[in-house]
Automatic annotation (TrEMBL):
PANTHER family: ACETYLTRANSFERASE, ACETYLTRANSFERASE YPEA
One GO MF term attached to the UniProt entry: N-acetyltransferase activity
Organism phylogeny: Bacteria, Bacillati, Actinomycetota, Actinomycetes, Mycobacteriales
Highest taxon of source: Bacteria
Protein name: GNAT family acetyltransferase
Family per similarity comment: Belongs to the acetyltransferase family. RimI subfamily.
Residues annotated as domain N-acetyltransferase: 1-154
Keywords: Acyltransferase, Cytoplasm, Transferase
Length: 159
């Protein structure tokens, strides 16, 4: 397996996985992923597995850096693992990378997660995220609620 930054050529596979993983919640298209990858303030990674002669994207994650460079905040946009590769630590591997990037800028991190996604919530809590509240009907068109979670900056955690 290999971890690397996602590129425009990876956008179609991300969109394919979105359709599988988030069918009732307005999954992102190839074009949305391609645009996200091109922004200078976003950070998107993928885990690739060799399947025969081919390298296949099996997990991806992305976040944005918001605010001034000397005092940024980060927002996780997405994290997803192909159902055939779940429960192998790939989500945690990607979160390690995202949190390392945020910590290198000493930034606080925010995210939204479906209130019924217990495995993701447990992973986020293991990374130091705390629940800040509920956004009712956040995911559309399903109408599922989301928790808003945040993780303090490295300097705040070290106090």
């Amino acid at each position: 397996m290999e971890i690397r930054a996602l590129q425009t050529r990876d956008a179609a596979r991300c969109a394919e996985l979105e359709q599988i993983l988030f069918p009732g919640d307005n999954p992102w298209s190839r074009d949305i992923f391609a645009i996200e990858f091109s922004h200078p303030h976003t950070f998107y990674l993928g885990v690739f597995d060799d399947e025969g002669d081919e390298e296949v994207l099996v997990a991806y994650a992305g976040m944005a850096m918001l605010g001034p460079r000397d005092d940024p905040e980060f927002e996780i946009h997405t994290i997803a693992v192909d159902p055939e590769h779940q429960r192998r630590g790939l989500g945690r591997l990607l979160m390690d990378q995202l949190m390392h990037a945020a910590d290198s800028f000493d930034g606080q991190v925010f995210l939204e997660v479906r209130t019924d996604n217990a495995p993701a919530i447990a992973m986020y809590e293991a990374f130091g995220f705390v629940n800040q509240g509920v956004r009712r009907n956040y995911y559309q068109p399903s109408g599922a609620d989301a928790y808003t979670m945040s993780r303090p900056s490295r300097s705040e955690r070290e106090q």
